Write the structure tokens for this entry.
Amino acid sequence: MSDAIAYERVGDIAVLKAQNPPVNALGYDVRVGLVEGIERAEADEGVRAVLIYGDGTTWFAGADIKEFGKTPKEPYLPDVCNRIEACPLIVVSAMHGTALGGGLEIALSTHYRVAVPKARMGLPEVHLGLIPGATGTQRLPRLTGVPAALDIVTSGRQFGAKEALELGVIDKIEEGEPREIGLAYARELLESGASRRAVSELAAPEAIDFDAAYETALKKSRGQLSPAYGVRAVQAACELPFAEGIAKERALFMELMQTDQRQGMIHAFFSERAVSKLPELKGVEPRDVSAIGVIGGGTMGAGIATAALLAGLDVVLIEMSAEAAEAARGRIEGNLQGALKRGKIDQAKFEHLTQKALTPATDYEALSDVDLVVEAVFEEMGVKKDVFTKLDKVCKKGAVLASNTSYLDVDEIAACTSRPEDVIGLHFFSPAHVMKLLEVVVADKTAPEVVATGFALGKKLGKISVRAGVCDGFIGNRILKTYRTAAEHMVLDGASPYQIDKALTDFGFAMGPYAVADLAGLDIGWATRKRLAPTRDARERVPTYADKLCEEGNFGQKTGKGYYIYEAGKRAGVPNPEVMELIEAERKELGITPREFSDEEIVRRYMAAMVNEGAKVLEEGIARRPLDIDMVFLFGYGFPRYYGGPMKWADIVGLPGLLDDIKSYAEEDDYFWKPAALLEKLVAEGRTFDDMNKAAS
Ligand code: T1G
């Protein structure tokens, strides 16, 4: 018998315990063990029921994702499910932790299901670019009906035991250890003379308009295929006999298994977990952080304070004046009101956070006891140095001094203190209590335990923390500047900002670069262009039409006009005709004859610029692994998750072709388009960015 499943006899009940840590993934050994366990129980004299439960923190959390892309080995999971259901003895599942994907499908193939109150369930396969592939799309709708099943399959969301009971997914909720509540339930069923109950034998569910549901799913997922495939699979449950429905589900599942999206999304799954694991932090203990200081109560400062309060930290917020401190409290209360409305906190918690945990102040002395400070003041080096000089005086020994700068030199900021080893960059993204990305910017003298403290804080705040080195714009904003420049060059040469936005939203981005610029505020880019102008190389092509737009006070959404014009209360804007007039005037001035750009070429140039700069960021060690860059763009820049990130996208489309493109673009402009040496090296050696990830893990 495979060790992954232990067999135990308790009276007339055979007990199968899953023991495949950390999450009882349904790998080959577990599948073999389940089939062997059922067969052994059937042959075990006097056994009248079978109980299945998971040892450790959870019931089966799904198929073993590490096996995907490899040659599947029998028994296949759908066959294991059908084997369990076919057992003549009643089979009971007792669930705790997270019964996800194949794990829930196993449970649905048993005859009775009990769960602990905190158990969570779901079919998250769409988040891996797949659909349930072990009968879940055929069994679930027979229990819940089509609307609920469609919601669960296409959203991939988790749901709790209470909702599962209401939906008919489980039969009972019981407090206690899974083994104990399972045994008690099995005995109760035996005593009540309950018979085996196969979900597959339930009537086919009532159909709905599946074509409409398919279109809705496709539109909603902006090019991601799996949710729409999920609709077709659930449709089969209504239109086909069970066995044929399973075959249809399998065919759709195997089709998705061959897609680039599946590769991209599984890369995202494992990278999300690998990104905060740094070899150099092995065994390095972070410093304790229970109270933090935040300098500056503007949008960023208030967002950071909100994230910290929601994570259970005490916050001292410093502002220049009492009025400004009250205004900051107002912003934070506004953010927390949102959490209250969404049911993330209750009224009592709201009052505790705003009345007890948050302390607005104007005197830096109020920071004398905090464990960590995040400075979020105006993005100007002089102002930053002034703040850090003060912090150096008042903060206790061992306090971590962090800057939320998005571009500036953290080494230079650290150098103005007597404790540069305690200085680090913690670059949050706006809104800081919503955006999941945190760039942990490690300066030359930053101590390892201070880096570890940055990552530990990121984890506490529920962030995806990515290590970045010091350069202008770190990982994200540095690469952003490059692909934004590629876009601006296309605008000068003939494309319109609106065509570019459309091409990139069709590609899968939530918003195009010009709509994003309007959202962030055109004054930020304007300030950056002015800051860099004195040192700009004459060969650099920097259009001036955007400056003219700003000089007229058009900063985007916040002024109601930028690249787009925004009606009050409307998020989406309409193209601002003045923009094209400014662009055409500049082309004339520069003697440029505009040319046509296809959407495909726009995406190709935009992505080539992103990947090429990404390779340079890797060469310089600003990012350690390509997956670090991928996570920055997935969690900070709205990059479509189903590509896995820009570096993964590059691997999938092929580095040689991309390098050829960059070399052809360099014939037009060899100042901007310099192929990264790393890209040339990988192509020459026939290697990929993924090879680098593997080598670094
Ligand atoms: N397969 C392989 N490894 C897995 C895994 C899985 N399903 N789930 C987790 N791990 C690893 C993970 O990489 C990490 O490893 C460790 O376990 C702890 O995970 C046919 C096709 C269960 C909620 O999508 O959502 O079934 O980094 O850090 O925060 O229809 O993991 O330590 O080396 O995330 O406590 C469907 C995926 C599969 C669930 C636990 N199931 N997992 O969260 O720990 S597809 C899923 C999760 C499927 C069938 C189809 C979470 C979790 P390492 P962790 P956690």
